[in-house]
Amino acid sequence: MKTIKLMIVSLLLWSITVGQSIRINEFSQGTSGAKEWVELVVGSSTPINNSNCVMAKVNIAGWILDDNNGDFSPTNHFTGSGMATGHMRFKNEAPWNNLPIGAIIVIYNAADRDVNIPVDDPFDWVNNDCVYIVPSNHASIEYCTTLPTASNCTTRTDYAACTYVTTGNWNNVSLANAGDGIQIRNPSFGLVHGLVYGKSTSASGCTTAVDMVGNSLAPLISNTSMSLTAGSFIGTTDADYFDATKWLIVAVNAATPGAYNNASNETYIIDVLRGGCTCNRILPLDNPNIIIRPNDNSLLDAKIVGNILTINTKYKQSIYIYNSVGQLTNTVVNTNNQLDLSKYISIGLNLIKVVVDDRKGSTFILKYIK
């Protein structure tokens, strides 16, 4: 009998390191309640432009995602200006410290999930497409729950005095319908990119109903409420992210979390950011961190007899076949419990990745030893 080892794969350390950037690519107020989400795209000052299409390393550890912190509501830094107390930050761990250029990241409110959000995939193990679907309560995200805060109508507070914890939640960055902002800041707290919309509303002792204000890094894309709507980037260059005319306001169900916003957005991400390269990250084939099964017990049994792989899971699964250097070669979607591996062995089968279709994106790696 051939053997299988189940293992958690540590993220590959790419040999190319480049300067990073993050842009907000789309955001949504959600179909109801607080079903909000933000989609980010990871860029670089050195886009991929080489013949072997190696996905270069980008590190966004320490970068901040926040709503309005007062910069977008001059002299009116109160709760009616969309200032949710606190913010979130990417921890210095996988996946944030080893992302490919052109990665798409969707972070959503885990307490009120929008039905349009794809299956969770915080490490891009589901289908290796450079798309990361991340709940707001994921362990790789940390929060400051105290700063910035709305205070005294004219006083805004900053980020430097923060203490970060893992007990925060989406409420620390929640998006107001009437008027608010979304912003990305680098580890030095400098504004990198933002979006602004709507008007501030009344609060006790403060001026009422003033327009939110954009700037050169954070354009005002709408001067009205964005309830039940989403903002989608439709530009073709990096400079377009800062141009309000390159943003389209759409109904929430027309938004595309985890997918390209339109043909021009697809062209920009694939051809400009990724240099025309297909996103096919090479997975590491060896890892000493061996586990018996996923923590959610979705895998009941796995074995190979002859060339037949038998997997007994609680749910249907998709199987991804990798060659001897860790590149994705074949995909079998929604299989039954058995798969003949004969045709894959001829291409140098080395790794089998199984994704259990349980809406949690439970993933485990089967190391195939011939």
SSE pattern, N- to C-terminal:
EEEEEEEEEEEEEEEEEHEEEEEHEE
What radius of gyration results from the CA coordinates? 22 Å
What share of residues are in beta strands? 25-35%
Mean pLDDT: 80
Strand order of the largest sheet: 9-8-3-2-16-17
Q: Please, how many helices?
A: 2
Overall morphology: elongated
Total strands: the figure is: 24
Tell me the number of structural domains.
2
Class computed from helices, strands and strand pairing: mainly beta
**Straight-line N-to-C gap:** 10 Å
Show unreliable segments: 1-18, 284-295
- The biggest beta sheet, please? 6 strands, mixed
The percent of residues in helical segments reads under 10%
Describe the fold and architecture:
With 370 residues, the protein is mainly β. The protein folds into 2 domains: 20-273, no CATH class; 292-369, Sandwich (Immunoglobulin-like), CATH 2.60.40. The chain is 4% helix and 33% strand. The protein has 2 helices and 24 strands. The chain has helices spanning 263-273, 342-345; strands at residues 3-7, 20-28, 37-44, 57-58, 64-67, 87-90, 99-100, 104-108, 131-135, 141-144, 150-151, 155-156, 179-185, 191-198, 220-222, 229-233, 247-251, 299-305, 308-313, 317-322, 328-335, 338-340, 351-356, 363-369. The strands form 6 sheets. A 6-stranded mixed sheet has the order 9-8-3-2-16-17, covered by helices on one side. β13 (179-185) and β14 form a beta hairpin. Mean pLDDT is 80; it is low at 1-18 and 284-295.
